[in-house]
Design brief:
5 strands; globular; alpha+beta; homotetramer; Thiol Ester Dehydrase, Chain A; 5-stranded antiparallel β-sheet
């Protein structure tokens, strides 16, 4: 199965004054899903985020559609896929699942950049292969 | 001038381990720009966010394009416009300005909902008028 | 054993520009430990935090000693005990454990208040008993 | 007057599900007050927080007493003083003022450390002098 589903714990502090998970906090849950899915210490899909590394993975674009309010729950399941792979960038798709429904649907475009020059770095073959393993087939 | 530009203070805590304002924190800055532009206590464009109010304004969609990393600065100027007005919803456009450049460009779709039923509530004439005052002309 | 140890997931977003878990985020981890230890849906020690409930549990005091910087890890174990029980308040003790060391030691004083009047509410016998079950013996 | 009072903007996102500024967010406001009071670009009291600097200022202890709930307001005034100066550390005192009352009273102990070795660095004469200028006299 190409999508990887991770369980991301919700924090009580993610709720806003409306008593639901705040829309900003939702983007934080997606960030956390991405970290858990792509930088699993056991089998990282991408280079580590350790300080001092010359390569950073930065978010160039985020698009989030909020379909259903998320109340306080202990954790949400988030399905993560690679939707597109470009030269120096790739698009991750997310679905936050809540009691069988898709509460949130989102994409983020990530770019590898050189820390010193802040310029994009092409994905190498190894990285493309590991990203492809998380993509639905056939790739769009 | 139809856009309203607000100064939103950046917090040191908005920085992430890369030393830039985190992409999630950027969405928080946009939320804050929206609150400052639309719920100014002196001249609120929309109903107050006070607890106990029967109407909530919820974010249905957010699309953020990150063009330039934002370092630690005391505050950023954010230009806010109303880009589209629907029956029960409207779209806000944002530009975070950094030393003359647009560092971030974004839109959020907001919907008025009834707290009890969580159903959309149509914007009334008064609200449409105040929103239109923040829209570029002619409206798209 | 009187202390309850909970595993609280750390988020990448908890790191600050120094690459360690930010001191403010640490207080958020303690809040989350408290929620997990005291409001476990299966066996809540205290009344639920559901919206509309007439009783709130508010933090009156927090004292945190940071002994060791916490790098990015997937989760930290936090030992939670009830250190003192007063008329309308109680003190929770926390230890964040990191590779066998106590990285953070903290206490928070919590008070039950009436939502309408914001006045303290005495802990009832049932609540005192459940809190005592989490206290080291003999109680100080 | 030895205390420096800074205005720290509150964000709507600082509110929690109770509709008040969350206790964790309060610690964030204090962090921000400290940054504004001590690292004012025009007249920094302490070395800059720029990335790559060999010295970090870390929080070793934080003690916050919450006296009054803070509702959503645009900004709070925070009075900041230096309460004690040690060899490699100093204690900052804070008061969050709300309509004439002290809503929050707090102290944080800060330590200068060497980034490479994570060991304390003694405050130099220049730093002690600038810190003393923010202390009430006579110093305790």
């Amino acid at each position: 199965m190409p999508a990887r589903t991770v369980s991301v714990p919700v924090r009580w502090g993610d709720l806003d004054a409306y008593g639901h998970v705040n829309n900003v906090a939702v983007l934080g849950l997606l960030e956390q899903a991405r970290v858990q899915a792509f930088w699993d210490p056991g089998a990282p899909v991408l280079p580590t985020l350790a300080a001092g590394t010359p390569v950073q993975v930065v978010v160039a674009d985020a698009h989030v559609t909020y379909r259903k309010a998320i109340p306080y729950v202990q954790a949400v399941d988030i399905a993560v896929t690679v939707e597109r792979i470009g030269g120096a960038s790739f698009v991750i798709g997310y679905e936050i699942l809540l009691e069988g429904d898709v509460a949130v649907k989102a994409t983020t475009t990530l770019v590898l950049v050189d820390v010193a020059t802040w310029r994009p770095i092409r994905l190498d073959e190894d990285q493309r292969e590991r990203l492809t393993a998380l993509a639905p087939s056939p790739m769009p």
